[in-house]
Amino acid sequence: MSIISAVREYIASCPLLGLSDVKKIHINWTDDKADSHGIIPDGDIITKKFLNGGGKHQYSFSLFVRKFSAVDFENLRNAEFIEELQRWCSEESLAKRLPLLPEGLVPLRLEALNGMAFEPDKSGKTGLFSIQFNLYYNEYRR
């Protein structure tokens, strides 16, 4: 079990994505079809060290989602999707429904930040949208 695997399982459980299979979320890539999903890890930093060698961590990643975006109506729906996903993340974090991390790691909160249109594809029919996340957790060593 790894942090990225836990994050992938957690994001796949989001009802807004409508996924029935966690394998439909790729790691480090998306394909060019609408409703393709990918998680791109961005780093894991220690924000505070504990005396026992563990510490407080910030694990950052982005979720990329390809959506239809050829007309304003679709782009409005895509912007609303980003808002809803950020709201879902906030509500889940407040309720302490967080990713199930590997042993010794305790999730504290998850933030969804900076949702945006990332880039249109060459055909102009779809666009890639990005939502950045920070997962805060404590690491405890024995």
> Low-confidence stretches at least 5 residues in length (pLDDT < 50)?
none
Average pLDDT figure? 91
Q: First CA to last CA: what distance?
A: 18 Å
Assembly of the depicted chains: single chain
> How are the strands of the largest sheet arranged?
1-2-3-5-4
Major β-sheet profile:
5 strands, mixed
Structural class: alpha+beta
CA-atom Rg in angstroms: 16 Å
DSSP helix count?
2
Helical fraction equals 10-25%
SSE order, as H and E? HEEEHEE
DSSP summary, beta strand count: 5
**What overall form do the CA principal axes indicate?**
elongated
Q: Which band does the percent of strand residues land in?
A: 35-45%
Summary tags:
5-stranded mixed β-sheet, elongated, alpha+beta, 42% strand, 142 residues, single chain
Describe the protein:
The protein has 142 residues and is α+β, with helices and mostly antiparallel strands. It has two helices and five strands. Strands 1-2-3-5-4 form a five-stranded mixed sheet. Strand 2 and strand 3 form a beta hairpin. The longest helix is centred in the middle third of the chain and has 23 residues.
Give me the secondary-structure topology:
Elements lengths: L2 H10 L12 E3 L9 E13 L5 E14 L3 H23 L10 E16 L5 E14 L3
Parallel strand pairs: 1-2
Antiparallel strand pairs: 2-3, 3-5, 4-5
Short précis:
It is built from two helices and five strands; from the N terminus they run αβββαββ.
